[in-house]
Amino acid sequence: MADYQTTMSALVTNVKSLLSSKTGSGLALEGIRQIKRGILPQNNQFPLITLIPDREVFPPFSSSGLVRTQRTISVFIFGQIHRQDDAFNVQKYADAAMETLRDNQTIPDSEGNPTVIAIEFTPITIDDSRGGATFSATCISEETLSRTTSSTIDNNPTSKEVLDKIYTKLNNLVPTASNKIRAVFREEWDASWTRLLPSVTCQLTSHEQASRASGRDHPEMSFDINLYSKVASAADATLLNHLDAAEVIKAALTSEANWDGKCHDSALTSINYGQRLESNELLYQTTFDVLTTTRHNK
Amino acid sequence: MAIHALWDDQYAFSVRKGPLDWTDQTTGGTATDAVSHQDDGDATQHDDGATPPVEFGGDQHFAATRPAVTGSVALGRVIGMPTSTTAVNFGMPVTGNPDFASGVEIIETPVADGQVVGRVGGGAAGNDQSNIFRGGSSPTFSMEFVPTVQSLMLVGSTFFQEGTAQEADKLQLRTVAAGQVSDPLYVASVLRKMSTSAADSRILSDCVANSFSLSADRSTPLTCSADFTGRVLVTDYNASTGAAGSAADTTIDIGRNYALHDCKAAISEGTAATQYVIPVDAFSLNGSMETGYTFYNQTTPQSILTGPQSWEGSITIPLAGRGSQLSNIAMSRILSQLGSNSASPSGTVTPIHISLYWSATPNAGDIGAAITQPSSLAAVRDLHIRLCCVITDISVGGDSEATQTLSFRCLNQMTSVSDVARNAVSIDMKADHAANNMFGFTGASATYGM
Question: Closest Cα of chain B to A242: distance in Å?
């Protein structure tokens, strides 16, 4: 991967490595006993740090499909609070973690190459009752995402026609085992599909008839694409597998400029990472926001 | 007319092959170069007397069908956006519902005859005791639209004039070195359709573009804007019957548009074939053309004369980058050296070339990589904009992110008095089909090479 480029999976890995490098004796994070990616298991060794992917935002693109992607990860620091000083310790570690990232703006990869242009932080929030502190780090990296374009654009496609194009594109990912996607659905998530995880759902969320030019409207259709993965264990690999699958879906959604001529333009505006509890089953849920603009001639 | 909703307006753009005889308002004969509309707004109508006749006058504007066109059309014929040899579109997706300015000159002549307040004539014969007179009329119009290949070619022809060419499916707009006559070769009529049945739509008749701009940024696709100045403003056009007895066509071209996201931009120096791919955050190109009138004591122009063109523009490049060509310092150094002869600071200026390639399959080359200039357009609706520039300013700015803006002038790079090595502006496009997309322009050699 070229300098100043990364993925969410690589970013949390590189941040973990960077923070881990400061846990040695006499270093800023000395005393931290565990640094994790993703959700925590039932039993832990405190104090610990865990990194949770939050969101990816794609500002408008420059030429050559260059985009300065903004990836936000939440950094949680937990300790066992038995006395007031323990709470101060959690705050101290949070401050040290932020300083570590701030001092090394480029979040180097395993070969020492820079992956990030700049980092912005939210203030540290302390929660005494849970013995935790948290802050968010937004890392800006470069990415080039070129698209396939169709030479002509259809008039007034239905939202189903556009959805079908998205569905077909994603469904074509299923046969390739390395994509780690088992099924794609055009409906909202159904709990009975847990046996088919990891799976993807595609849905229309809004359809606005925005008028932009004489003789032609440009309706905007928003779609939510959700990727669900089963949290079989709290191991880091579970999250990383989910993020790898998310990267495959992201590449598919950003590779089409107009979905075989159905749209005037299409943009993946953001990716939101989260969790979902479904029938006592904890799932990693990632939502891709796709905004398409179509044409409707008068 | 019922209440008029702006969103219901539709615009159409039609071109006639010139040069026209701006004093000829005849109709019903065989004249091919008469103006499109008489001073009272009636369309002119001429034909060649053949069976079936080929019509020439302004009555043909916005007519969706045409006699088969397989090459250059004759003087006086109407040109639209072709979809087959016999069918054309004229619709234009104009933003902002602009209207026409009548451009009537009002002349006030104070009369020192003791009257306290200025007077205006009563309109009756002999009642000429007036301080106010109506002078010449030169109506104007400005429009902005997101172009396709077809609409860009049609509108661009009224600015590039003799630089407009089509060779099979190759479409080209480029600045010419010499031979651009002052009588416009292509004149447009622009329709603002206000309703479908009443005689209340408007046409700016027989106009030429005196400015032509292209721009794009990270949030806005390639957008074309143009200013037009014309002969007469028609205000009682019936859009349901006005196009040779049929409804005026306002069908908009179905082609793709051009987002900066899908553009591959490159820069090179001198005559080097090697270019470097650069990231571009914003791009603008503005051409202006001196345009004048002669009225000969008439209220409408008796001729419209086009003169020299000047081209200016800018590109904005993010300063952050990677690779030896794009680190902040290296990029600034290269750009600062471009356009100047380092051996003699006041010596000959060497131009740079900025190219913007919109191709169905993006041109190869990562940002910062060296690429060889393409030699042709690969796929239908591909669009290449190539500029021969002299940098006039480099500034660094930006809000949260540092950016570098290059301002430039576009000039023809000459090898002799009449030979152009590189055109100041060259816009190359590829039509959908070689035979079915013949506009009918005169220029038949659309050679891609610079």
Answer: 28
Inspect the interface and report whether the beta carbons of B259 and A148 lie closer than 8 Å: no
Q: Which residue of A has its CA nearest to B379?
A: A151
- Give the distance from residue A204's alpha carbon to the nearest chain B alpha carbon, in angstroms: 23
Specify whether the CB–CB gap between A228 and A284 falls below 8 A: yes
Q: What is the ipTM of this complex?
A: 0.90
Reported as a single tens digit per residue, the pLDDT across B350-381 is 788 899 999 988 777 888 788 888 889 999 99
Report the run of H or E that residue A161 belongs to, with start and end: helix A159-171
The nearest CA of chain B is from the CA of A77 a distance in Å of 30
Alpha helices in B188-347 (DSSP H): 328-337
The kind and range of the H/E element at A296 are strand A296-297
Helices A236-253, A8-20: axis angle to 10 degrees equals: 140
Who among B93, B217, B379 is closest to A151 (CB)? B379
Return the number of other C-beta atoms located less than 10 Å from residue A86's C-beta. 16
State the CB neighbour count (10 A cutoff) for residue A205. 12
Residue among B279, B361, B380 whose CB faces A66 most closely = B279
B281 vs A contacts (CB less than 8 Å): 62
CB atoms within 10 A of CB B206: 24
DSSP per-residue codes, B307-321: EEEEEEEEEEEES--
The type of residue at B130 is: S
Render pLDDT for B301-353 as a digit per residue (tens, 0 to 9): 999 999 999 999 999 988 755 444 454 555 555 566 555 555 544 456 778 88
Nearest to A167 by CA among A259, A251, A248: A259
**Can you read off the two tokens belonging to residue B19?**
């040069």
Q: A4, A64, A262, A263: which to substitute to probe chain B, counting the most B Cβ within 10 Å?
A: A64
Q: Cis link prior to B221 (omega < 30° from 0)?
A: no
CA atoms in the 13 A half-sphere facing the CB of B58:
32
Tell me, what's the pLDDT at B324? 46
Q: Which two tokens stand for residue A279?
A: 């029938």
* CA dihedral of residues B181, B377, B361, B424 (deg, nearest 10): -40
**A294: which strand partners?**
none
Which of B256, B277, B318 is opposite residue A150, by nearest beta carbon?
Answer: B256
Determine the 3-state secondary structure of A223 from DSSP. strand
Q: Nearest residue on chain A to B219, judged by CA atoms?
A: A60
Q: Angle at CA B398, nearest 5°, toward A292 and A5?
A: 60
Check pLDDT > 70 for residue B386. Answer: yes
B218–A215 C-beta distance less than 8 A? no
